[in-house]
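Follow-up to my earlier ticket, as requested here are the two runs.
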Amino acid sequence: MSVETVAAEQSEDLVLREDSEGIARLTLNRPKQYNALSLAMMQAVRRELERIGEDASIKAVIIEGAGRGFCAGHDLRELRGEVSRDFYKQVFDTCCAMMMAVTNLPQPVIAKVHGIATAAGCQLVATCDLAVTEETARFATPGVNIGLFCSTPMVALSRNVPRKRAMQMLLTGEMIEAPTAAEWGLVNKAVPEDELEDAVMGFARAVASKSPHVLKIGKRAFYEQLDVGLSEAYRQTSEVMTENMLARDAAEGIDAFLEKREPTWQGA
């Protein structure tokens, strides 16, 4: 990729942010390229997530794509434009760091999917905490078709769908339809196009109505317990619940339930 192209990319609004009702909406904004994840775009997404993580006013995040699709994965023209181990390592390390930023973000993240979500775009859907898709969208990890196995997308994919289903996607590279993605657990639900926004906002508003402190510790505990054995998972989550019970929002929530009123969260 030329210096001129990089400079032009960095001057674009690669990620658009709009905040409303305590919900941050991030839009991947390379519509002509089906929002392919250039190095600059991945860096921009990560920076915006870091800002959101520090913003106590934000309770939930929506990630969507501009134009005709959610995200087509890595920018293949960029990958062929600079053939070097160091550049490739930078691209894939940056992608992994972006995905981890989604997982490590205190706020829940919801993918709003339309069109296609392929390769690293499918990985991003799998990485988000929740995902809603229009029923005509399609998903794939098609790297095998071009000689580049979807190894990093495999990480998120294999943690969301059954093993045989993940291997089917990875080994064949074939597209799956939105209803199948919902059946396999890649997304939470597939809805008609005209219902997509309402379905996504339904999740976002539900999440935003909860204690941000409780969601933060619960999200962290969820991902941590996935990677340990059963007894260690119970040990860890018992400690988490003990600490949670000592939080002011737990006291407020339980008292509000007993007193039959709505809780007033303090975020601590």
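Run two:
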Amino acid sequence: MASDPESTALVVGEDGLARPAWASVDPMLREYYDTEWGMPVRDEHGMFERLTLEAFQSGLSWATILRKRPAFRAAFDDFDPEKVASYDDTDVERLLGDAGIVRNKAKIRAAVTNANATVALRAKGGLADFVWSFQPAQTPRPHTIAEIPTQSDESKALAKALRREGFSFVGPTTMYALMEAVGIVDTHLLGSHRRGTSGVWPS
């Protein structure tokens, strides 16, 4: 029986490897899926970049953000939290004029706000350890995309805790996507060649 590619099963590529439909066609998404998505990110710089990009992705496709990531890195000083924290209104206007990124004033200001919050959070152990402290006791074991949650009790708690620390654009759905991206949960479909490869969770 034919099934909806957005809710199913794995697609076996010409290389014999099984991937979800979203990562099976576009070479850029396939490369991201095969090498980066779901691998542990435990440093401040990497976590700040992922958190910022997830916020910019809100309401858009991840492919859009991924294609623009080189431009984002150039525009935001390679996501150096201290540099971004120092941005003023002139920098916000510069970013609003940069066609290479997503030109959303609220999201740009949130990036600056979150950079300042990231620097401040060093006094409590740093952003990466803070985010990882919300790792759940178990991870989903989805057979289809439809079985993957869009948020969890932990992502809700993380969103609330980050807001208390001064972060913005950190809703529970965005934070669940972050947790997936940085390996805190493993939502690779069962049977995918990437399932269990993070070393955080068994396959």
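The only thing I checked on run two: Residues 75 and 95 are 7 Å apart (CA to CA). Let me know what else you need.
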